[in-house]
Specification:
Number of domains: 1
Radius of gyration: 17 Å
Largest sheet: 5 strands, mixed
CATH architecture: 3-Layer(aba) Sandwich
Number of strands: 5
CATH superfamily: Glutaredoxin
Distance between the termini: 33 Å
Strand content: 15-25%
Structural class: alpha+beta
Shape: globular
CATH topology: Glutaredoxin
Strand order of the largest sheet: 2-1-3-4-5
Oligomer: single chain
Number of helices: 4
């Protein structure tokens, strides 16, 4: 590994890594689980674990990550799913059963589910 000798080299390295990550993200489904205090208190950790297990069980190439507050505290746990080439969809009141359905019906089966929250932002 090369040593970084200046701030300019560090910035160049950072930009290259970010571009690579963006390219990879554009090729796979992304699931973001809101893990602010209200989400965690409502069961977001369990939801995230179910999502990861379902994706692994079905051998899916999906990036399951956590994010901060989505400002939908009333509907926690909330989960954003961005399928390749499509706009993100945010699901509210997600429990273990709904998390399984997000993977099997929405991601794998291309079937829309109840509980979508209308979005008013570009991206998390």
């Amino acid at each position: 590994m090369d040593k970084i000798k200046s701030l300019a080299e560090l910035k160049t390295k950072k930009e290259g890594l970010q571009a690579n990550l963006k390219e990879q993200d554009d090729k796979m489904v992304q699931i973001k689980v809101a893990m602010a205090t209200c989400g965690i208190a409502s069961g977001a950790k369990d939801v995230m674990n179910v999502l990861k297990k379902e994706c692994e069980r079905n051998h899916l190439q999906v990036a399951v990550t956590q994010t901060g507050c989505m400002s939908y505290c009333y509907a926690e746990p909330t989960v954003e799913v961005k399928r390749v080439g499509m706009e993100p969809v945010v699901f509210g009141y997600v429990d273990a059963e709904k998390a399984e359905q997000i993977v099997t019906k929405y991601i794998m089966g291309n079937e829309m589910l109840d509980g979508v929250i209308p979005v008013n932002y570009e991206s998390i």
